[in-house]
Each structure stands twice: as C-alpha cells, then as structure tokens.
C-alpha cells in the first residue's frame, strides 16, 4: 500500500518537469495517509514548475521527525531537514512562507504551521540601530525576502517574508544567526565571524557580505515589525 501511495504522489505532484526542476522528498507516511502531501505538492508544483518525486531514504529533503519545525497537528510536529539542492530549498522556503502557511492551513483537519518552543532559550539582546537595520535588510535580504512594502514586488514570492517570520517564537535567534540556516551559509559572509568560502565550493550566487553590526541592526529592525496576520486555521467540517 505504501508503494502505491508513492506512485500516486509522483503523479499528483504535477507533470514531469525538466531534470533541473525537480527534487526528491522523503516524507512521513502519516502525512501521506492524512492526505496533506497530496494537497501541498500539486500547489507547489503549479506555483514553481518544480516536480517533487517521493523517495524513501537518500532524498534531497526530508519532512518528518527532526529538523526545523514546519508542520504541526495537535502534539505532533514534523520538521524539514537541511537541504543543498536549490529546488528542495525552494520547497522549504515555500512551506514556511506566507503562501505556504495559507496552503497548509487551507487543508484543515487540524494541520497548521509548527511553533518553536522558547523554553529555556537565551533571548538575543536587541541593541542595533533599527533605521540602519531597515537599510541593511533591503540591501542584503531584499533580493529574496519581502522586507516591507517597498520591495514587495522585487522579492521572491515563495520565500517567507520578514512579517511572516516575525511570528516565529525564536525569530530573534533565527535572524541573529541566519547564516547558520540553509541555504544562507552557501553564499553569506559575516566579517570576522564566518570562515572564507571553500575554493572548491564557491558561492553559487553573488555573495552577501555583511558586518556583525549590520546583523545586529537588522535584528533591531525586525523587532520593530508587526508580525503578519496569518489568520486562524480553517476548521474541517
């Protein structure tokens, strides 16, 4: 039965795309049985043109136990593993984005975005210049993320906006150490903090080079943002 589900999902994810527009996903069978994956994948493929192929083990991305919390239902939480494949990274970004969260909540049946526990964690001191932070965020982050209304039409729609990420209970830690989160480390250099790029693995895009003061300023700016209203989860009938 499980193998049948795998074959069905490959069809439901959308038409076969070019080889450079696909990735493999290892997903918890519970999400397949609930019908959530059949709901998410066609919508992601329609939005991006990326084919998602379900695989068991050795996949580009895993949605299951562990990883960064992404999906929740009651006390159950499913997380996304780190990924290096750009199409897999795009799916991760999409699922955590405003559009992804709305797609997840539109399925209903108790599913929604996961909230990260803040128990026993050290909060980040907010000491930066928020005016400088807005400028730095638009310069360095605005190529992908919607920072505010001024760059809404220039960002990548499938990446989470600053307003959406402001809802994360650990938003301050995420922003203060963002270069440690995939895919940022592959193209980000923080002066005096990160190691130089491996000559054998140069940045795949124009690198983002920032100072520690700019990072602190961005955190201060994000602290001033009103979290985006994601609305209440849609209740199943």
Q: Care to describe what's here?
A:
- Strands 2-1-3-5-4-6 form a 6-stranded mixed sheet. It has a two-stranded parallel ribbon with strand order 7-8.
- Helix 3 packs antiparallel against helix 5, helix 4 packs across helix 5 and helix 6 crosses helix 9.
- By secondary structure, the protein is α/β, with parallel strands linked by helices.
Features:
six-stranded mixed β-sheet; two-stranded parallel ribbon; disordered N terminus
Summarize the structure.
The chain is of the alpha/beta class and 237 residues long. It has helices at 2-12, 29-33, 36-48, 86-96, 98-107, 130-140, 162-165, 171-176, 212-223, and strands at residues 22-27, 51-54, 61-64, 68-73, 76-80, 111-113, 188-190, 208-210. The protein has a 6-stranded mixed sheet with strand order 2-1-3-5-4-6. A two-stranded parallel ribbon has the order 7-8.
On the 0 to 100 scale, the average pLDDT is 82
* Separate helix tally: 9
Distance between the termini: 27 Å
Structural class: alpha/beta
Main sheet attributes: strand count, strand direction, barrel closure? 6 strands, mixed
Shape: globular
Low-confidence stretches: 1-18, 117-121
Helix content: 25-40%
| Radius of gyration, CA atoms, in whole angstroms | 18 Å
Order of helices and strands: HEHHEEEEHHEHHHEEH
Residues in β-strands, percent? 5-15%
> How many strand units?
8
């Amino acid at each position: 039965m499980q193998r049948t589900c795998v074959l069905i999902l490959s069809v439901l994810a959308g038409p076969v795309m070019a080889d450079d527009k696909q990735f493999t996903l290892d997903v918890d069978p519970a999400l397949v049985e609930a019908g959530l994956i059949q709901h998410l994948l066609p919508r992601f493929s329609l939005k991006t043109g990326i084919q998602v192929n379900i695989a068991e083990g050795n996949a580009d991305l895993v949605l299951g136990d562990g990883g960064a919390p992404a999906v929740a239902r009651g006390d159950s939480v499913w997380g996304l593993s780190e990924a290096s494949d750009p199409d897999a990274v795009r799916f991760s970004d999409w699922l955590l984005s405003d559009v992804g969260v709305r797609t997840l909540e539109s399925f209903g049946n108790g599913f929604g975005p996961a909230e990260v526990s803040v128990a026993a964690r050290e909060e980040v001191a907010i000491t930066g210049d928020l005016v400088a932070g807005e400028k730095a965020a638009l310069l360095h982050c605005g190529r992908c993320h919607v920072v505010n209304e001024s760059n809404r039409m220039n960002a990548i729609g499938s990446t989470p906006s600053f307003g959406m990420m402001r809802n994360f209970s650990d938003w301050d830690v995420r922003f203060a150490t963002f270069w440690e989160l995939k895919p940022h480390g592959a193209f980000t250099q923080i002066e005096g903090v990160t190691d130089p790029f491996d000559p054998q693995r140069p940045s795949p895009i124009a690198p983002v080079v920032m100072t520690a003061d700019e990072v602190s300023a961005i955190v201060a700016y994000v602290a001033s943002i009103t979290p985006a209203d994601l609305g209440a989860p849609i209740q199943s009938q």
